[in-house]
Amino acid sequence: MTQFLDENETRSFDQRASDLAKRLPEQIRNAKTYAPGFANVLENIEPETICEKSDLEKIDVLRKSDLIRLQQANPPFGGFSNSKVKPDFVFQSPGPIYDPGSKAVDWWNLSRFLNAVGIGADDRVQNCFSYHLTPAGKMMESAALALGASVLPAGVGNTEQQAEAASFLKITAYCGTPEYLLTILKKANELNLDLTMLKKAAVSGGPLFPQVREEYSSRGITCLQAYATADLGSIAYETVPDCPLIVDENVLVEIVTPGSGLPVDDGEIGEVIVTSLNPDYPLIRFATGDLSAIAPGLSSCGRTNTRIVGWRGRADQSAKVKGMFVRPEQVAILRERHPSIKKTRIEINIKDNKDVMTVKIEAEGLQSSEVENTVKDILKLKAKVEIVSLGSLPNDGLVIDDLRPQLVT
Question: Of the residues 282, 297, 312, which one is the last residue of a structural domain?
Fold first, then answer.
């Protein structure tokens, strides 16, 4: 079993809560003081009142769509980076969204992940994440260097050259997207190159399919995956293959009903909301747009932080009905107006060549007639309301299910 990076990974529940009660107020104060983008959001928030994860519900969620708009109005970062810290790098991700970066050691906090893979000072790492505009290459490079490894900044493409370099340099570890290593290995076979020194793979940026992991395992390669983003760095990472991901020690993860800031029960799929404890880029309650769920229990590896299941889809579920957009945020408003609602799902279909909507609601003691006017007021559309039994709606994170046949173009 890989050794832990530090004692923080094996803290008791009480010790982690005690440490968070110090770090979290400091980060709220930091954002309130030095990140003017949070001025309105945190105006009435006293940092000392935000001491644990549940306290974050007092703060509005920051969405990527909002960040794009605010960055356009106040370039480059919308006022959400620490104004007292000059970034060493500026990156662009699709959107476009601009993110700061730093040459500080392990600034994106991915060294815990690479350590879990087994990467250390004796390794020579072939980093096949992109170094062009996006920060992925720098993110993994920073973590590998923090662990004392040597890095080949290979980037993407030029597979034959990648295979030749891996063989010549006796590369021991790979960082990159899940399937690209397989491409390199196959090219090496074609060229009769020896890559048997390569025994570790740290992957991210796409799904790791079982057959791909099995192929690596058959070659004696340990392959683990991480969940990270350009804005937040490391969010969670595998330590045991095919087991839930452990949340990184430098972020807080909430799972909420899509379109809202309302938490779901552990095990229920919802949108991933992340609060970063990075003082240089203090993103508070940042909505990733991804779906996941809190996994029960602790990892067999000995790390004690919260775990989440893998990616379960996207929370961006907007649909156009009769020329009007129906959005998850509207579903969240419906629940706010009727607190007895436990769960809501809007189903959109076609009947007699017309769009029809059914709003299914899990609730006790609530009549459909009590909700119909609220639905019409919020959605600006007519819909059938059905009250269903508790637990009858699927646990898949969907609040808007578009069942209409999709046109193939």
Answer: 312
Quote the number of domains for the chain. 3
| Domain assignment present for 409 | no
**Strands (DSSP E) found in 309-405:** 319-321, 324-326, 341-351, 354-363, 384-388, 400-402
Is pLDDT of 407 > 50? no
Residue 10's region, left for phi above 0, alpha for psi from -120 to 50, else beta, is: alpha
**CA 7, CA 9: separation in Å to the nearest integer?**
5
Contact yes or no for 234/250 (Cβ under 8 A): yes
At 88, list the tokens. Answer: 């060493």
Torsion angle (degrees, nearest 10) of CA 199, 204, 209, 210: 40
Backbone angles phi, psi at 21, to 5 degrees: -65, -20
Domain membership of residue 344 as a residue range: 319-402
- CA nearest to 110, candidates 137, 150, 134: 137
Band of pLDDT at residue 406, cut at 50, 70 and 90 = low
For 295-335, give the DSSP string: EPS--TTS--S-EE-----BS---EEETTEEE-HHHHHHHH
DSSP string, 117-139: HT--TT-EEEE-S--SSSSHHHH
Q: Are residues 197 and 237 in the same domain?
A: no
Which of these, 347, 311, 329, lies nearest to 257 by C-alpha position? 329
Q: Which of 182, 205, 230 is a domain's end point?
A: 230
Q: Using the predicted structure, report yes or no on whether residue 259 has a pLDDT greater than 90.
A: no
CATH code: domain of residue 301: 3.40.50.12780
Strand 245-247 to 307-308 pairing: antiparallel
CATH code at position 387: 3.30.300.30
Using CA atoms, how far apart are residues 13 and 53, in angstroms rounded to an integer?
13
Crossing angle, helix 328-337 and helix 368-379, to 10 degrees? 140
Tokens representing residue 191 in the block: 């060229």
pTM (2 d.p.): 0.86
pLDDT surpasses 70 at 409: no
For the beta carbon of residue 269, count every other beta carbon within 10 angstroms: 21
Q: How are beta strands 89-93 and 124-127 bridged, if at all? A: unpaired
